[in-house]
Amino acid sequence: MGADKTPKSCLAIVLAAGEGTRMRSDMPKVLHTIGGRTLLAHVLQAVVEAGSNRIAVVVAPRQDTVAEIVRRVAPNAEIFVQKERRGTADAVRAATEALKRGADDVLVVFGDTPLIRPAVLGQLRAALALGAAVAVLGFRPADPTGYGRLLTNEGELLAIREERDATPVERKIALCSGGLMAFEGKRALAILELIGNANSKGEYYLTDAVAIARDMGLKAIAVDAEEDDVRGINTKAQLADAEAVLQRRLRAAAMEAGVTLVAPDTVFLSSDTRFGKNVTVEAYVVFGPGVTVDDDVSIRAFSHIEGAHIGKGSRVGPYARLRPGADLGAEVHIGNFVEVKASRMEDGAKANHLAYIGDARVGEGANIGAGTITCNYDGSSKQHTDIGKGAFIGSNSALVAPVKIGDGAYIGSGSVITRDIPEGSLALERAPLTVKEGWANRLRGLKTLGKTKS
Ligand code: UD1
Ligand code: CA
Q1: In sequence order, which residues have a C-beta less than 8 Å from that of residue 360 and are 6 or more positions away?
Q2: Ligand 1: which atom is nearest the Cα of residue 112?
Q3: Model pTM?
Q4: Which atom of ligand 1 is nearest to the CA of 18?
Q5: Which residue of 27, 67, 147, 454 shows the fewest CB atoms closer than 10 Å?
Q6: Which residues have their alpha-adjacent CB atom under 5 A from ion ligand 2?
């Protein structure tokens, strides 16, 4: 009685055995990044969010770096090697062992199509639930050159014709294949087995699955997609186009969640950037991967932030640089031309101008004067600086690590601190000041004399 409520199992097969020669790069294509994350990781995340409980990734031989990313992003994914590049159907067949284990739904996606949204993959799966054995993403590109065309009759999908095998009339069809497909799990292997390579390229085309399914008396459905979702990346220019689309999506999502972006087109986000409530970001701010921003934070123009945490009520920038491991507590102020790396700034600590804080702890409410530098590198290794609660570091001080400044200690401007300073004390390192009264006036007098002579 009633519908079966157990969620359908889903195997996602991710094809990533492409050579990517047109990227003109030594790096495999799917390891290029947009939004601070590899193309492959975007696709893996999309299939997981679309409800895939199993993932098979098909890679080319000797793609250890790709396999490594797969293990990191989707530890449970199985990796299959396609020995020779013989077409998309051959690539799917490389994952036959995974298909044999069975799944209600099978999704086939491409590793170089990173903008696919989980909801669109969900629509492909929904088409299977409506009784299709094969579902295809169809779209109407501005320029259809190079895409397979969807042959339809009264809304029914009959076949997909690859461009090089299409007649001039078929080439006029505007509805194209986005390449991504879904298969009813229990039919997938039978359909795949029948795909041959009798075409102009001599390749095994996955797209032939449509005509084969129909010959078997099964139903094929085309699902409408937007061009952005199926945008494939073959060149650096297309990589930049995809980045632009992703940035628009990320900015829109941030604003939707309540972030004030004063000039959204100039702000660059990463897919994993996280914002709290009541955050304002001014123009030209770049967020690299791994940034979390708590509530009530203001990030001023031209700041570069990566691998950092910004605590509640903090103010950052303009022109600030937070590098990986920068961890700001609440109400911290980081001003212009201040760089923070691998350092904890405790609540209320301030570095308002021109400073370098690296491998340090800056205690609660401590004040770092302009020009302060933690000298953390001795030429071979990094050393730690510990600055106590409420300490005051006078301008232009060099703190030579490893060194510890006690709570409430006061460092006189221009000091070079080479040993630990006890709490509550003053440390001052300064050459005696010499004043020669009248000296400058005498010098000017001599110069005037010289001039009248000549
Ligand atoms: C494919 C579709 C085409 C569709 C287009 C959309 C086929 C036969 N054609 O064409 O109808 O319009 O996508 O972008 O499917 N791959 C492998 N091993 C192979 C071949 C391909 O892993 O042997 C991978 C590629 O790395 C890529 C994906 O499969 O990620 C698609 O292959 P590609 O050669 O780009 O297919 P298209 O010719 O673009
Ligand atoms: Ca392609």
Answers
A1: 343, 344, 374, 376, 384, 385, 386, 387, 401
A2: 30
A3: 0.93
A4: 26
A5: 454
A6: 232
What does the radius of gyration of the chain's CA atoms come to, in whole angstroms?
31
Question: Which of the ligands is closest to the CA of residue 178?
Answer: 1
177 lines ligand 1 (CB under 6 A): yes
Give residue 110 CA to ligand 2 midpoint distance, Å. Answer: 8
Show the tokens assigned to 384: 């730690």
Which residues are CB-neighbours of 77 under 8 A, at least 6 positions away? 14, 44, 55, 56, 57, 70, 71
CB 387 within 8 A of CB 393: yes
pLDDT (tens, 9 = 90+) of the chain, 454 residues, equals 445 678 999 999 999 998 788 999 989 999 999 999 999 999 999 999 999 999 999 999 988 999 999 999 999 999 999 999 999 999 999 999 999 999 999 999 999 999 999 999 999 999 999 999 999 999 999 999 999 999 999 878 999 999 999 999 999 999 999 999 999 999 999 999 999 999 999 999 999 999 999 999 999 999 999 999 999 999 999 999 999 999 999 999 999 999 999 999 999 999 999 999 999 999 999 999 999 999 999 999 999 999 999 999 999 999 999 999 999 999 999 999 999 999 999 999 999 999 999 999 999 999 999 999 999 998 899 999 999 999 999 999 999 999 999 999 999 999 999 999 999 999 999 889 999 999 999 999 998 888 765 5
Residue 210 C-alpha to ligand 1 middle, in angstroms?
A: 15
Q: Evaluate whether 90 touches 108 at the Cβ level (below 8 Å).
A: no
Where helices occur in 87-136 by DSSP H, the ranges are 88-93, 96-100, 118-129
110 lines ligand 1 (CB under 6 A): yes
Q: Which residues contact 278 (CB under 8 A, 6 or more apart)?
A: 258, 295, 296
- Residue 353 appears among annotated catalytic residues: yes
Nearest CA-CA partner of 185 in 116, 260, 125: 125
Active-site annotation holder among 304, 333, 353, 384: 353
Check if 17 has its Cβ closer than 6 Å to any atom of ligand 1. Answer: yes
* Encoded amino acid at 225, one letter: A
- Angle, in degrees to the nearest 10, between helices 39-49 and 64-73: 40
Query: Which residues touch 49 (CB under 8 Å, ≥6 apart)?
Result: 118
CA distances from 159 to 142, 147, 200, 422 (A): 22, 14, 17, 80
Question: Which of 38, 88, 139 to mutate for ligand 1's pocket (most ligand atoms within 8 Å of CB)?
Answer: 88
Atom of ligand 1 nearest to the CA of 82: 18
